[in-house]
Amino acid sequence: MTAPLGVILAGGRATRMGGGDKGLRDLGGRPLIGHVIDRLAPQCARLAINANGAPERWNFLGLPVLPDSLPDQPGPLAGVLAGLDWAAAEGAEAIVTAAADTPFFPPDLALRLQAHAGASGLCLAASPDETGRMQRHPTFGLWPVALRDDLRAALVEGLRKVVLWTDRHGAGVAPFDSLPHDPFFNVNTPADMAKAERLLAGRA
What we know:
Elements: E1 5-9, E2 26-27, E3 30-31, H1 32-40, E4 47-50, E5 65-66, H2 76-89, E6 94-99, H3 109-115, E7 123-128, E8 134-144, H4 148-156, H5 162-168, E9 172-175, H6 190-203
Parallel strand pairs: 1-4, 1-6, 4-5, 7-9
Antiparallel strand pairs: 2-3, 6-8, 7-8
Helix pairs in contact: 2-4
């Protein structure tokens, strides 16, 4: 399978962390987003970052910065659309997305998303919660460039919930284990950052 392009979604407001860029918070002596890049880069042909505001703050990473093309930060689907527009200009067929605040996602994310994609080429990652119920992770997906105009129209019409759009197009679901911990654990609060530090120390 052809390696997709990778887009790191870093456009959130980080309100539960007191604002600012969660991806630039320190984890183990380096920015949180650095851990995400290390995991995603080997899985993708090239990477870019979806982020709003001054792009210069990401210059040290040496990656393209893709702002939302729609106003008012309407959510992760707008970041997906920015990534799809970039991929179309690059001549690529699909992107894989990962969240900038999730440093432990699986190293075979892209391959398994591709293997479980629906007929439309869409796929979301999923893992079991503490009750064993599979939960989809809308910021971890495989997105075909062919659907970008449909996504743009849906966003203009006011759609914001990722799974409403992916269900509309018969997205596949790629299952992942949650042992020894959920690989899609994301850092939303200072307590989460402390947990991430413990998990990182346990992997060292």
